[in-house]
Amino acid sequence: MNTLGKEKILGLKIDVDTYRGMKVGVPRLLSIFSRFGLKGTFFLSMGPDSSGRALFQLFKNPLFLRKMFRTQGPRLYGIRTAFYGTLLPSPTIGLSFPDLVSRILSEGHQVEFHAWDHRRWQDELLVRPYEWIEDWFEKGISAYRRIVGKEPRSFGAPGWLVDERVFEIANAYPFEYLSCTRAPEPFIHDPSDLMEIPSDLPCLEELGPKRAVPTILEIFGSGGIHVLP
């Protein structure tokens, strides 16, 4: 008998993309999770915060500007973040906070691999050669090992952006599952045979504060297993 429709399971997937998100956002989330007895999986960007390079997208993609206004990007990410990697040097994200990573783990949460350079992956993945992707993975996972002391169990692609080369390279690492896509339910990647646990709920910033909670509760109310990114 299939009981999945009656169960209500919510997975919390926290992607940490910026230096400010790591320094300010993660401690706040840990306090909230502790207060309510919640556990989550933190997918951490380990390397440079190149968020300022996103400004170049304003000229390439008008929809990006609309997204920044909708999500109140400058207020959300901070002014300094808008210049990292351009007018300001790029600080490293996960590598800058080994004690905070230890705190995440000690409080019972999972820490997995999200990125080396998050911004460059989103902007350049599809035009970069195979060797660039290999180097990106090696830098990021080496940094993860240095901070966490073991291999990551999972990889969550920045911006849910992947191609067949990514799956081929990911298959060379001992990942137990991937969380790289947005889809209604888990599936097996072909030909890597890796389990994909996708995000199926909308991001809070996509809906805005007024619509987020009622929309997510409506979806979650029907039962099933869901992942909130």
What does this structure look like?
By secondary structure, the protein is of the alpha/beta class. It has a single domain (8-49, 90-228), classed as Alpha-Beta Barrel (TIM Barrel), CATH 3.20.20. 41% of the residues lie in helices and 14% in strands. The chain contains ten helices and eight strands. The protein has helices spanning 19-36, 57-60, 62-70, 73-77, 98-106, 118-124, 130-148, 164-170, 204-207, 209-221; strands at residues 8-16, 41-45, 110-115, 154-155, 177-178, 187-188, 195-196, 224-228. The strands form two sheets. It has a four-stranded parallel beta sheet. It has a four-stranded mixed beta sheet with strand order 4-5-7-6, with no helix packed on it. Helix 1 (19-36) links the parallel strand 1 and strand 2. Helix 7 crosses helix 8. The two termini are 29 Å apart. 30% of the residues are buried. Residues 1-5 have low confidence and may be disordered.
Question: Secondary structure elements and their pairing?
Answer:
Blueprint: E1 8-16, H1 19-36, E2 41-45, H2 57-60, H3 62-70, H4 73-77, H5 98-106, E3 110-115, H6 118-124, H7 130-148, E4 154-155, H8 164-170, E5 177-178, E6 187-188, E7 195-196, H9 204-207, H10 209-221, E8 224-228
Parallel strand pairs: 1-2, 1-8, 2-3, 4-5, 5-7
Antiparallel strand pairs: 6-7
Helix pairs in contact: 7-8
